[in-house]
Each structure stands twice: as structure tokens, then as C-alpha cells.
Design brief:
By secondary structure, this protein is an all-alpha fold. Helices cover 71% and strands 0% of the residues.
């Protein structure tokens, strides 16, 4: 039975809209058919570990992280992969359920991130205040930028809830919240015209660096991670998830591109290590400015992309090591990234407190670092296990023998 002529139009338009929504993510569907790319979880887990280690001052173990050997560091990896996974997840939801449903799911995720930040903010500030007061180390209030909470608690707390005030080391999560909050319109554009979306993000990046755009911070200055510039790395991750990586694969596998990437990584290694060791070099002051973190200098992006080209060649998607027991703890930390990140930030202060109050010997630094990583992994494993309980919950039939008694 055919529809009347006047009723066919809406159905046809609805069907064509669905096709238009699904067509731009065909590359993503082909990649998803291969299963979850464990490389993303692996490197996001490593990024969480590195952020924890880097936030402990005077920690010799932190020399194992990438920030000491190049222009980019764990924050670049975290933001790029966050953009990739956000696009991978929410583009499919928008294509299947519509843009409105996808936006609702994004807003729900932003709220979860915001609640996590507020809880971390409260526990973090309270722990710093308690240690400073109980052990007579008032300098920690200034060192961790929480003195304002003591002097002007109401105003400072209000600015904290508005993401304008942030204690030391609590900068990444507010950046993630803002990027996710503004991701819905960008994702809708990227599903239809990914190259146009990436071009628009690049234009915003260049304009922000030229005109000095940034979000205001309390009590003065701007955000340590400028959202107007860091959005480019987030968008590049989203672009790669929605077919960009497949289209750029031929370029990434080019021998010339590989040689250029290795050469640039070696160059960045020489400059960065030379600067950190205090060696006199005429290039160090130049690249100290160009690789500055707040505005995501171009050389940071180039360094990250060069590392990505090398990693894609060295660690293929089907590498057996990704399913080894050795990689399992890191991958789980990447899969439970939000919980691991929050506990890692808190533990970094605990590690700083232990090294300052009790002992800063090398053995203590190693113990604090390893202990923190074990706790982060334990939290990740617990969260992974607890989520399976909902899936495996038995649905036992209610019979006369197991009916709840009156009053229960």
C-alpha cells in the first residue's frame, strides 16, 4: 500500500536527512568494524600517568615523561584523544538518534565533567588547607594558589564554580569541560563538512594567537590552557575520528614524511634537553617562546603530529602487545580516564606533601610514584569491574518464596 502523495514528502525528507547524517561518518564506521582501537586507551592511560608524575615537584621519576624530551607533552595527547573519542561516540549517536538527542547526551557528559571538577576542587583545596594549617606550612596556600579561599572565601569559591579560579594543577579538566560544552555545533558541522570545520578551528586558533583572546581568570590574567587555541588540537582529534585519519594515512605512511618527522623529533629532543640541562644554545630562548603552553605554539602541534606519524608506524592497530598483561593496567587507566585523572591530581599533592614533610630521597620519590600509579590503576580496575555489575545483574523471577515481606 503506497502513501498518499502529500504524506510521502516528510518520509522522504526524513530518510534523506538520515542518509546525510550517516554518510560523513562512513570512514568512522569502517574503523569501528575493526573493534576498539586500544592504542587510544594506551596513550591516554600513559598521559594520565605522566600528568600525575609531572605534577609532583622535584620528582626524579618524572624525567621518564615526554615533556622533558620535546615541545609537546601529556596534555597534548590527552586533548587530542579526547577530541577523537568525543567525535567517535557522539557522531554515531547523532546519526542514529538525531542532532537533538546527541546534543542532550553531550550536555549530560559536560555536567558529569563539571560535577567531577567541583568535587575534585573541594577535596583538593580542603586537603591543601588542612595540611597547611595542621603542619604549619602556610606557604602551601600560595604555592597551590588557594590563599584566596582563606582571604575571600565566598568570592573565590564563586569564581571557582564559574571555572575562573583554579588551584595549581587543576587546569586541564576545566579546559575539557569548555571544549565539550562547545562541541555540539562544531560536531554537526564536521559531520557534514569535516574539512570546513577544521579550517574554521584553525582560523580561530590563528586569530586568538594574533589578538590575544583568552578566558579571564581570577584574580587576574587568563587561563593557563587557552581554550581558543587548544580547541584546535581537540578539533584535529575529532577530524581524525570522522575519516580524516583514513584520508591522511597515505601521507602518514610516506617515507619522506616519516624521515621529516624523525628529524623534527630529534631536533626538538636536542633543543629541549639542552635547555633543561642549562646548556648554552642560541636556539633555546627562541623555542622557549615558540613552544609556550598557554597558547599552544605551532611547534607543539608539529611535534605532536610528528610523534603521531612515528607511533602509527611503530605501533600498528593489531599489535599483539596491546593485549598483553603488561599493557593492561595502562589501557584500563585510559578507558577510565576521568576517574584516573581526578585521583591522579589529588595523589600528586599527597606525593608532594610526603616528599616535603618526610623525605625527598630518590627511594622515596620512586615509592611515591609507583604507589600513586598502583592506586590509580586500582581505581580504574574497580570502576571497570563495578560497571560490569549492571550488565550482569540477574533478573530473577519474583516467586512466592522470594517475594519481599511486608515492611521490607
Amino acid at each position: 500500500m503506497s502513501l498518499p502523495r502529500q504524506d510521502r514528502g516528510p518520509a522522504r525528507r526524513s530518510q534523506s536527512a538520515s542518509v546525510r547524517a550517516e554518510k560523513p561518518i562512513a570512514g568512522e564506521r569502517r574503523s569501528s568494524s575493526l573493534g576498539r582501537d586500544l592504542r587510544l586507551d594506551l596513550f591516554r592511560g600513559l598521559a594520565n600517568w605522566a600528568i600525575f608524575l609531572d605534577h609532583i615537584p622535584n620528582n626524579a621519576v618524572a624525567w621518564a615523561t615526554t615533556r622533558n624530551y620535546g615541545f609537546s607533552d601529556a596534555a597534548d595527547v590527552f586533548v587530542f584523544i579526547s577530541g577523537y573519542t568525543a567525535a567517535f561516540i557522539y557522531a554515531r549517536r547523532m546519526a542514529a538518534q538525531g542532532y537533538l538527542a546527541g546534543m542532550a547526551l553531550l550536555i549530560r557528559r559536560v555536567w558529569q565533567l563539571y560535577v567531577a571538577h567541583v568535587l575534585l576542587f573541594v577535596f583538593y583545596a580542603a586537603a591543601i588547607g588542612y595540611v597547611a594549617q595542621s603542619y604549619g606550612h602556610s606557604h602551601l596556600l600560595d604555592e597551590f594558589n588557594v590563599a584566596g579561599l582563606i582571604q575571600q572565601p565566598v568570592a573565590t569559591l564563586t569564581h571557582g564554580l564559574l571555572l575562573k579560579f583554579k588551584p595549581l594543577n587543576l587546569d586541564v579538566l576545566p579546559l575539557y569541560i569548555v571544549l565539550m560544552a562547545g562541541f555540539a555545533p562544531l560536531l554537526m558541522l564536521m559531520m557534514r563538512a569535516p574539512d570546513a570545520a577544521l579550517t574554521a578551528a584553525t582560523a580561530v586558533y590563528l586569530l586568538a594567537r594574533h589578538f590575544g583572546w583568552n578566558f579571564p581568570a581570577h584574580p587576574s590574567g587568563g587561563w593557563y590552557f587557552n581554550p581558543f587555541t587548544w580547541q584546535l588540537l581537540f578539533t584535529m582529534g575529532a577530524w581524525a575520528a570522522l575519516g580524516g585519519a583514513a584520508r591522511a594515512q597515505a601521507l602518514a605512511r610516506s617515507r619522506i614524511v616519516l624521515i621529516a618527522s624523525v628529524a623534527f623529533v630529534v631536533f626538538a629532543f636536542v633543543v629541549t634537553v639542552g635547555a633543561r640541562l642549562g646548556l648554552s644554545t642560541s636556539l633555546s630562548p627562541v623555542f622557549d617562546v615558540l613552544s609556550e603552553k598557554t597558547n599552544l605554539a605551532p611547534y607543539r602541534i608539529l611535534h605532536f603530529l610528528a610523534l603521531a606519524v612515528i607511533v602509527v608506524r611503530v605501533v600498528p592497530r593489531d599489535w599483539n602487545g596491546l593485549r598483553s598483561r603488561l599493557a593492561r593496567p595502562i589501557i584500563v587507566c585510559g578507558q577510565r580516564s576521568l576517574e584516573v585523572f581526578c585521583i591522579g591530581i589529588f595523589l600528586s599533592f599527597v606525593g608532594h606533601f610526603i616528599l616535603e614533610m618526610y623525605s625527598d630521597r630518590l627511594l622515596t620519590q620512586i615509592g611515591v610514584s609507583v604507589g600513586g600509579l598502583l592506586l590509580m590503576t586500582t581505581v580504574a580496575l574497580y570502576r571497570t569491574w563495578s560497571r560490569t555489575l549492571d550488565v550482569r545483574s540477574p533478573k530473577a523471577p519474583v516467586t512466592r518464596g522470594n517475594q519481599p515481606k511486608k515492611g521490607e
